[in-house]
Structures are given as C-alpha cells and as structure tokens.
Amino acid sequence: MPLRNRLPFYEPYSDDQISAIENHADRILDEVGVEFRGDEEALELFRGAGARVDGERVRFEPGLAAHLCSTAPSRFEMHGRDGRTLPIGGDNVAFLPAYGSPFVTDLDQGRRYATLADFENIVKMTYSTPWLHHSGGTVCEPVDVPVNKRHLDMVYAHLRWSTKPFMGAVTAPERAEDSIAMARMVFGAEFLGDHCVIQGNINVNSPLVWDDVMSGALKAYARANQGCVISPFIIGGAMGPVTIPALVAQAHAEAMTGIALSQLVRPGSPMVYGNFLTTMNLRSGAPTFGTAESTLATYAVGQLARRLGLPLRCGAHYTASKIADGQAMTESVDSMSAGILAGTNYVIHAAGWLEGGLTFGYEKFAMDLDRCAMLHKQLGGITVDDEQLGMDAYLEAGPGGNYLACGHTMRHYATANHESSLADTNSFEQWTDDGALDIAQRANRQWKQMLAEYEPPPICEAVDRELLAFIDDRRKAAPDAWY
Amino acid sequence: MPLRNRLPFYEPYSDDQISAIENHADRILDEVGVEFRGDEEALELFRGAGARVDGERVRFEPGLAAHLCSTAPSRFEMHGRDGRTLPIGGDNVAFLPAYGSPFVTDLDQGRRYATLADFENIVKMTYSTPWLHHSGGTVCEPVDVPVNKRHLDMVYAHLRWSTKPFMGAVTAPERAEDSIAMARMVFGAEFLGDHCVIQGNINVNSPLVWDDVMSGALKAYARANQGCVISPFIIGGAMGPVTIPALVAQAHAEAMTGIALSQLVRPGSPMVYGNFLTTMNLRSGAPTFGTAESTLATYAVGQLARRLGLPLRCGAHYTASKIADGQAMTESVDSMSAGILAGTNYVIHAAGWLEGGLTFGYEKFAMDLDRCAMLHKQLGGITVDDEQLGMDAYLEAGPGGNYLACGHTMRHYATANHESSLADTNSFEQWTDDGALDIAQRANRQWKQMLAEYEPPPICEAVDRELLAFIDDRRKAAPDAWY
Predict the structure, then answer these.
(1) B3-13+66-378 has which fold?
(2) What sign for the dihedral angle of Cα A337, A339, A342, A343?
C-alpha cells in the first residue's frame, strides 16, 4: 500500500538562500562545466540542445540545465507484475531496501561475503513486508556469481520472488539492456513502452564527471521510457567542497545534467532527482552518517527538488557502525528523519544498511523495518475533530479518574497507537525473565520468521521458461568474468 | 555556553487545528474543571481571580486561564553561582540531565538502587560537559539517604559540585523552602529576590488534579520569585484520552492552571510551560516512548506554547529500553528530535534516561551527551555566502579532481564538520583490531574518564560552612523517615 506524507515539508531556508544555491549551481555549470567521458552521443545531444561542448567538457548557460529537465514528469507511477502501482513524487513516499553491499552480517554467522542466496533472502523479505514498497536493485552484491552474469540472477530474483517494482543493472549499458529485456518478457513490450516497471540507480562520478558506463546505462533506461534515479554521490571535502551550500550546489548541478541527458534521449522519461550527500571525518577521511552537516544539507536538497518540480530521492537509515547497536540507530534515525522532513519521495537504503554500505545486516534490516512501520503511522498526521477531541472522555472520567475503561478509550483502543514489533516495553523483571535480550537479538528471531513464512508469488510458467532460457543463452554467450 | 536554535520551528498544524485544541482546553476547564485538593490558599486565590470554585473543583470561563498566565515572562534568565547566565525561552535551548530514577546501571555493575554517590557522580559529569547547560534536579533518587533529608544532600551537591543552575526539592513545601534557603546562602537574599537561581519541577497529578504537595511546592518557589517547570504527566489512555488532540488539550488545560496559580502568588515569577506526554502499549499498559503518536503530540505542544507566549519544555532522550541498545537510541533520537522541531527551550532528561525513567544509565548518559553535542552544531543552521559557496574550490579542483587538498577545504577543515566523540567510523578491520566494541562499551570508557578528570569548582569557605551547618541542623530536627 503506498505511503503518503500528510505532514508539511520542513523548509528551513529562505528563498534567497535557495536561490543563491541555484545560481551557484548554474555558475558551476557555466564556468566549470561537466565532463561526459567517452560518450559521443551524449556530447552530440548536448551540443544540439545549445550547451557549449569543448572536448568532453560540457558547459551550460545559466538556466539551460533546469530548462532541459522540465520535460521530466513531476510525478509518475511504477507498476508491479501483480498489477499494483507505486506512485513516485508529490506527497508519496517509497521505501526500498539497502543497495550494493558486498558483505552481509547476522548474529549467527557474523560478517561474510554476500551470495546469491543472501540476495534472494533480501528480495523475499522485502516482498513479504508491508513497510517496503519497492524491491530495490542490487540489494546485496552476490559475489559468488560471475561479475558479467550477476545481473541476470539479480533481475530474475526480483521478477520471480517478488512482484514489487525493482531496479535493474547499471554496471554496463548491455547489462541494462538485458535487464530491460527480461522485464519486457514479464510485462510485454507494449505495456513496457509506456509504463515504468524498472529503474536504473545512476551515480554521478562526482565531482562533475559522467563516465560512459553510467551515461550509457542512463540512456538505455531512458530510451526504453523506463526510469532512473540520478544520484550524485558526494562526500564533502573529497568529491566536493567541505561546506554545505557548496556541496548542495554541486549535487544540484550534477543531478540536473543527468536528468537533462535523459530528457534529450527521451522527453518525458520518468526520473528521480536524487542525491547521496555525506560528510567525512576530516582527520581520517572516513565517511560519516547522520551528522549535523548531512541533515542541514538534506533540508536544502528538498527545497531545491520542489523548485525543479521533480520527485526527490533522499534520506535513508544510514550508518557507519559495523553492528546494529546504539550508534547504528542514532545515525540511522537522524539521517532518515532529515529525508522525511525534507519531503523525500524515494528512499533507497531504508532497511539493512551497515558500515557505510559495505555490509547488509539482517538484524538491522528488521530493526529498520520496524521504524519504517512507525513512520507509516506518523506521516498520517492528526485529525482534529469532535471525536478525536473526545469531550465525553473527560465528562466520564473526571478529575482523578482513569481513562482506561471509559467509552472513548474503548472506541479508539484498537487503532489509536501503532505498536512496535521489536521494542521491549515490559518491566525490567519481565525483560530479564525473557532472557535480557537487546533489540538486535529480538530482530534475529524476526527476520528468520519472515523467511520461514515467505510464500512465493505465482508466475506464468511460460514467462518463467522464457526468462530462464534468456539467462541460459546469455550465460553461454561469454566466458565468466570475475572482476 | 547557551545554545541557540537558528532553525525555524516546525509547525505542521493549521491555525484552525490549534485553535480547536485551545478551545477544547477552555471547554475542559469550563465544563469539567480542575481540582486543587487540600489547598485552601489556592482555592481562595482562584476565587478572587474570578474562577468558579465549588468545593475543591475550580472552573474557568473560556479565556480566563490563558489570561491569568499572561503575566509570566516569555523569556527569563537563570543564574549560576559563577556569574554565568542561562537564557530560557525564545530561540534558546537548555539541556538537563535525566530526573528521578531510583535505579542506576552501568556495564560493570549492572542495575542497582541509586545512591548519593551516584547522585554526586551525575552532578559532576553534568558540570564537566559543555553539552548540558543546567545541573538538573533529582538526577537520580539517592535511596541510601532518608526520604525526609534527601533534599538537603541533593541541593548541597548541586551547589557544591557544580555552578550551573539547578532544581530544588518539590516532595514537600517545607523541603522546597529548605532548597530555596540553601540557594539564598550562596546567592544572597537580595540577589535571589529578583534573579532566578533555582527551580521546582512540578508535575500535575493528571488527570485534572493538583495535590497540596505539588501546589504547595509551586507556591513556595513562586513566592520567592523563583521558577517552576509545570509538566502535566499524561500517558494517553490512562491519565487522559487516548487520542492525540484530546491528550494535548488536556495537557494545555492542566499546564495553564499551574502557571495561573504561580502568577496569582507572584505575578511575573518565571515559569516554563511543560509537558510529559506519552503513549502506552494498549495491550500491556506499559508506557512507550519515541512513538509516532508522541511525536505528533509534541509538534502540537510547541505551537500551543508559542501562542501562549511561554518558554516550552518538551522533548528528551526518552526510551523504554532497559539497556543502551538500538531500541534505546531509536526511541531517544525520535523523542528528542520531535522536541527540537517543536521549538523546545528546556529539555529535562536530555541525557541518561533508560527504562521509562526508572533507571539512569551511565553509558546512556555519555551516548546522549554525544548527540546533544551534535545538536549544538545542527541548530546553528547554515550560512549561504560567497565563502560558503566556495567557487574557488571548483575552479581549483575541476571535474574529477580531489577536494581534500584544495585551498577552500584547507580554510574550512578545522571547523566544517562536528566530530562525534563516540561513533566509530573506522574500517571493519580497524574496528575489529580495536576490540569490536559497540558504542555502549566505548561510552563506558568515556564516562569513567569524565569522572576521573572532574575538578570541583571553588566555593567560598564561609558559605560552605553555613550550608553544612544548615544541613546539620535540619538533620537533627527530625527523625529519619524512609518512606
């Protein structure tokens, strides 16, 4: 069920401040420009659109990049193979699992390389939970499968073990094409031609560089009228300046160039204005998450996205912690809350992220899901009417009375409060009797139960055979590559 | 150093919604009223002010309670014995340690009854840290000291081992008087007469009841022109209705009656509009924290406080967890963030709270302090100017360049990012080499270091002798009472 955010966005910065950041982004694009490396087609498209192309460097007059983004829809729908739709943009919020971890960890086996079995587990748990709306993409990196064939197994897992919208490969343009081809087998060529069923998660090679792998994948999805999430990945002080306004302006400039390219390839193709901005420890160079600075940057990104009129990706349950401890949840809650307040529409890494993205945590996944569930209640806001004000309750209970048994409480008992599935609110004595478990230990039981109770969605046998035959052909067509 | 919140408050509800809640609070006070039990003086004062007094029940015409609050200052200063001032109200934020726990816990000794030694430890750590601005009150309950003499040791500890503003006793009017008398010895009668140096933490006996202990303590502080924090303590569904608008309206009604009484005793005495609103597990009756509903209620409280023009107490690092785990920090971050966004001015329980307030956690204290430190940076907001936009950085680094060594980064290196003192951002390998500690284990080292490095502030010897003589007299004047 889609999640709508009925609370107003938090917009702490003045129009003057946001305009200054927009103007600065325009100045970066005009005076420095962006490089599209090894992509003649992109350079040609930009030249034709009025940008100044000098070698691989592309420079834009102020206002041109935003103008080129204007054909991208402010809102669109993704389609699952069960016929359900997921709205992206406006006041809608989609939560996705973590993306890209080469390691997984759990309390039983500890940290280890991720495998295709882990990948399938994450797809299955994501399918089962009502708190994630999208199956994600590279939910972990299945390192037991050859690099050049991994995308086939990943896309198959999303299509076979889930019905939720998903992301395909971006690690090579031809792998993006394979992903789209497999989606076409399930959805049909006609339907896919004008409905978004698959996306690519496109990172800019910040600062201010597009490599041909990313621009190639982006063009493949756009050409098929499918979607992309365009996310500059900037650690302030390394791939961009260390100050917040400068960091945000660079991200804005970079995101606009990717969206502009998508619109030159296929006007109207559905894009998400994304970002992955974070900070680093300036002594060690390590990335840091849920920091004051990343929160302040995230608020700005929300205001910029809405002025551009595009769906926004930001926020996540991010952390640098290696385990699902207090650090993990402090950083995760802060970074997700910043995104929610900023008005995020699309949250990659809503569940399972640990260690700056290097590790997917099974317990962390369950803990993050529990908080996603809570947010479903919170974002519903409040209703102020006579029934919610409940005058009869005071008249019945009176001063010093107990409200537990009064009629108003009885009427609202079942729906008033969201109940966490993992928080322990028992007495110390009861908690001790229950084994004095911390929340990660309780989460360990929960994800195992999710997997035990998973039931695969049906799939048309002919389609399944076609998918498997396609994968088989592709596997035979090239030798395995492991790097 | 005082903390100012330079970010705008988050006000998600419409004027119509807030007006409806205000009107409902007025209706509660008019149609149901509030009981002042065993306090003839309070009843007489309210009668004289135009309220309808029927036995111990006091009813207010719509608008009367708010009108009686109008002489309370919208902003005031508290004074420490080192001459520093702490502004309360406006865009200022004061963080205080936890309050009232009969138990303490740490990783070495586990959970046990709190003692005076624990109390002194907490006062000393609170004095040492720059992230708490106020020494708090009953920072834990020293159960090794007789109940009727405990306040003497507690007030002495605040006055002797700290210089920060503090809270005195409220468990009996005469103990409040003792607390004020001791403060008078340190600050002088004349200074104390027109400067706020001590406060009482006053809970309403919700629903809609004031007992003579609380109203007596409130009157004692107000009479001395000292401050109080007036906090209805309402668990929705038990001491008030289970729906959010009704819960908030009741809290508003109750807080106004306490502030009204203070102003009838001494117009202009400095009060804080407080609340402690939370939810419960509707199956077990256990209090719950950091929930969707408590966040939504907190936002409303902020809007109500500003319309009344009074300093606001709300938010805290609350949790029901028994230990400093992921649950503790999820709930704590959510409940503190709600208060910060709502525009809190005064945060009791900013550090150390566990188990719904039953336990003070030493490790939790250090972890909460680390987050308070981060909030100091976050609430400073951003500046958008040429230097922060840093055009020279892009021109120097260019597309694909590294910003680590560029001049702009060098200029901002030292101040750009706040660094957590507890978060581990190292590699998995380094973290493993360091013992694979979770954040609570790192916090264990930190609070011990804080205590080891504590240096007591100087005190005038004559004043110290006077305090000790006063305590000695009071101790001899009555037999020990243990309940």
Answers:
(1) TIM Barrel (3.20.20)
(2) negative
